[in-house]
Amino acid sequence: MSSRSKILAQVKANQPATVALPDLELPAHAAQWDALQKFVETLSGIGGRVIRILPGEDATATILQAFDDNSNILNVSATVQGFQALPDAAFEEPAMLQNVDIALMDAAFGVAENGAVWVMEAQYKLRALPFICQHLAVLLPLQSLLPNMHAAYQQVQAMGQYDFGVFIAGPSKTADIEQSLVLGAHGPKTMTVFLLP
Amino acid sequence: MSVHPNKASQPHAELAQQFNKDEDRVNWHDETLWWIRQKRDKAAWSVPEWEWLRQTASDIKAHVLSNMHDLLTQFEAQALANGASVHWAADAAEHNAIVHRILQENKVQQIVKSKSMLTEECGLNEYLHEHGIDVVDTDLGERIVQLAGETPSHIVLPCIHWKKEEIGELFHQHLHTPKGNADPQYLTGAARIHLREKFLTRNVAITGVNFAIAETGEVVVCTNEGNADMGTHLADVHIACMGIEKLIPQRQHLGVFTRLLARSATGQPITTYTSHFRKPAPGRQLHIVLVDNGRSRQLGREAFRNSLKCIRCGACMNTCPVYRRSGGHSYKYAISGPIGSILAPNLDMRKHADLPFASTLCGSCTNVCPVKIDIHEQLYQWRQELYKEGLAPKGKAVSMKMAGWLLGKPALYRLAGKAARTVLRLSPFVVKNSLNPWYKQREMPAPPKQSFSEWYAKNKKA
Description:
The complex is a heterodimer.
Chain A: H1 3-14, H2 35-45, E1 49-52, H3 59-66, E2 73-75, H4 89-92, E3 102-106, E4 109-111, E5 116-120, H5 121-124, H6 129-132, E6 135-141, H7 149-158, E7 164-168, E8 173-174, E9 182-183, E10 190-196
Parallel strand pairs in A: 1-10, 2-3, 3-6, 6-10
Antiparallel strand pairs in A: 4-5, 5-7, 8-9
Chain B: H1 12-19, H2 23-45, H3 50-66, H4 68-81, E1 85-89, H5 92-105, E2 110-113, H6 117-122, H7 124-130, E3 134-137, H8 140-147, H9 164-175, H10 184-201, E4 204-207, E5 211-213, E6 218-223, H11 227-233, E7 237-243, E8 247-248, H12 254-265, E9 273-277, E10 285-291, H13 295-300, H14 315-319, H15 321-324, H16 337-347, H17 364-368, H18 375-388, H19 394-407, H20 410-426, H21 452-461
Parallel strand pairs in B: 1-10, 2-3, 2-4, 4-7, 5-8, 7-10
Antiparallel strand pairs in B: 5-6, 6-9
Helix pairs in contact in B: 2-12, 3-12, 9-10, 16-18
């Protein structure tokens, strides 16, 4: 008998009588907050930076202003034009992106309760990009903010299937050495979210 | 610090005693973990619906345990449809052999691995090392203990027992950082450079799995460092190793678990990265290894079944007064602390018979558990099982038998109490000696002059 059949047979023999799935409706006393305020407060609290782009403001200029003039910005966003494009060769050899200073991409939505943004490979093209860059920059429409992870997964579901998707909340970090927080473990050392009007 | 958890043979109490020789260090260990427990409290209290989340998570997991057969086959079918390969391993040996075979098929001898308690449970690193494969653990804490020839002492905080000066010295030896530099920022920077080179050059990446979704066939991996993503997205082959209990029915259930996991573990609102792997990237491979290794047996043990709900947050360790003052290595098992003390005896009752006794049964673990596992009650249950099997620690078994005999004879009990009070007053060394484990690190209380019965009899009349 294969291990598969053996495991499945023993699981079937040992599992208890079926227990129904619980209702996922949030109770009346669940947390409520101002989504924008909570998002900014939370993301700032976990080491991220939030910059608002106001109506009529030139997004490109604001983005440039937010970083060193000398930084190279690789742009895979559909919202903002300009900057450097993703080289085709990177699909074969993503390691060549190791020297990308800043990667700029669109996020689908943000989550107020934890400062996370949802990005999908289909949006940013190459799976490794938001992790291998030294600094991550994300464009996020203000009206896309959702209160919590329950709403977030409803939205994920509504957006259709993905191959790879990730919630990112702040820069890569570690506290493994005596619980001292250090930003920039293996991935980006900073994360900037540009909130679009 | 030199204890290798899988090699030590002494019982937990003896290893804990060794750990307690350095009082300052024990106090530091204790306080660090308590600080993390306090961060967890703050995070939990900021969510008014916290108790609803715990109950809902527990109920979802109860459904999973009751429907595991169908959820496993559903997950497998979906994962295959997504283009992943699915492997089934009955035990640790088969798991290790499957991983090794995938490496051989891809002609790879150097790999990176992000945190996976399952691979620790299976002894994968040691097995692959014996087969000439070089495994680099990429979680910073895991890399530190790996360089030191140890295993993690905590499932979330692998090197919580290491001081920064010692890490500075370790890095000086292995990564050639300047001697005497113990700055966490600097040392993390050195590790970043050291591990980037591994990420950029290694073609197979192993990860653990936090959640596997039956409905979609995807696996979800949570890290703060981004090491799972750096490893997998820069490699041609991703091997995701998971225990069969990691299943959840639907994607929407992640809304509950992602709110609980990081808050319970470290007090963060969410891990930095919550990565959803549904399909392998074009031209690349995704292998998912489903491991039983005693889980289907535990499923059939009614008293211990709920231990399979565990999402490996580590909150029970951070709050446990025994764990905090004995260190993870004293448990000699990949998953230490209260939950490990339930899981380990399921795998090998004889080998881990000491663990259910490494608890005060205070219940703090049960109170913080995000999936409401009745941890301290299961530890108590294990003690009874072990007595029945004749596997309880010798001294305890004898003293419990005597206590049972004495408590069944009220007249004799009263006489014994009187004798003990007199003896304790006149010759306290009878209990204040090294043969009595209760006297270790404790003062015995002064014996009362009379028993409660005597006091009551006297005062009732007055």
